[in-house]
Amino acid sequence: MPAAPGHWGVLKVSAINSAGFRPAENKAIDDPALINERFEVRPGDLLFSRANTPELVGAACIATPAQERLMLSDKNLRLVVDRRLAEPEFIRLSLSSPAVRKQIAVFASGSSLSMQNISQEAVASLKMLWPTLEGQRRIVDVLAALGEQERASEAAIAKLQTVREGTLVSSMDQLETSLRARAGDRLSVRDVGEVRMGKQLSPSSREFGEQLPYLRVANVLDGWIDYSDVNMMGFSEGEQRIYRLSPGDVLLNEGQSLELVGRSAIFRGYAENLYFQNTLVRFRPGGGLIPEYAQAVFSYWLTTGVFAGIAKQTTSIAHLGGERFASLSFPMVDIDEQAKIVRMLCAWDGKISGEVSALAKIRSLRAGLVDDLLCGRVIA
In this predicted structure, what is the pLDDT of residue 380? Predict the structure, then answer.
């Protein structure tokens, strides 16, 4: 349990991250004898993680004003900077540079790959570029300006996504009201398309059948599919016909946390045939149904808690259930009404995509500059 305000806590290794200081990552100190005020963290302290995973050992951050009475643990270091010679933020940036990260990787040791350590002596021996104090400040200012641009772009994306979500909910609410007023027969999800669960992964699927790529819940995010980590399993010829994906199929998370169950994306095609696991549900739209409209309906149900309402919780995983999903009442309208909603959402998607591209360029520029400036290839 973290320490309550006004009580003492000790920082966990997760509190020190190159992305920033996380003071909430602490553990309350129950024994007063363990409290040593010399180790209390102060705003502006340069903190260093001397023990963590290989990727995070050696992470550094500047402590920001936060709750008082937080102590360093034996897995943290406070680097005391002589401000006549160096800027703390410059040291922090240098510690995250590729050249210094390579040194940390060499010095880090430990019997477990899940936890590596670097000694205080090794930290003191790390070598880095050492420009004048004025040069350090220029480098910090240049990278801080890009950091501000990055945060502004992230905020713009978050705002656009919020507006898009509001547009979706408002449009679908109005549509549902209109459909209720018409008092016509409602169609179920199974009436407007085909619902199918994917193939179950089992030990035999690793040994029998042609080994082919498939998508699982980790690949299907909100509105897009991540193809960077696609696994393989065996499919017989009959199974290939059943579980092969076609462009326009909508994939939904069948097993997920309660707030994410039913998260969906449209399969647009891939360089080779792809299949899907039973952690996903495939919805294949029938005639007269635009895939983008179907996916918009599913996003609406995710946002408004419809999926969470029908899901069955088992331990930490909620299951959508193919049969429960197929039985939901689908707001089917004519093709023109579908297209109108799709165009409205696509307009927002275009704006979001533009901001995402701009953010990627800023991050790429900043990463390149961090490397160049801190290695001396470019002078600020």
Answer: 55
110-124 residue pLDDT tens: 766 668 899 999 999
Average pLDDT score over residue span 70-82: 92
Please classify residue 319 by burial: count the beta carbons closer than 10 Å to its beta carbon, then call 0-12 exposed, 13-18 middle and 19+ buried: middle
Q: How many other β-carbons are positioned within 10 Å of the β-carbon of residue 142?
A: 16
DSSP alpha helix (H) spans, the chain: 88-95, 98-107, 120-124, 133-182, 189-192, 237-243, 291-303, 306-310, 322-327, 335-375
Predicted model pTM: 0.72
Distance from C-alpha of 264 to C-alpha of 294, rounded to nearest angstrom: 10
End-to-end CA, the chain: 45
Burial class (CB in 10 A: 0-12, 13-18, 19+), 185: exposed
Q: What DSSP assignment string belongs to 60-85?
A: EEEPPS--S-EE--TTEEEE---TTT
pLDDT at 189: 97
| Closest by Cα among 277, 264, 283 to 216 | 277
CB-neighbour burial class of residue 43 (10 A; exposed 0-12, middle 13-18, buried 19+) = exposed
What are the distances in angstroms from CA 228 to CA 12, 195, 220, 225?
32, 26, 11, 9
- Tell me the C-alpha distance between 235 and 331, whole Å: 35
Is the separation of the CB atoms in 144 and 87 below 8 Å?
A: no
**Residue 158, CA atoms < 13 Å, CB-side half-sphere:** 6
pLDDT at 213: 95
How much is the pLDDT for 250? 98
Check residues 130 and 213 and name the one with the higher pLDDT.
213
Per-residue model confidence (pLDDT) at position 320: 96
- Indicate the pairing of strand 280-285 with strand 231-235: unpaired
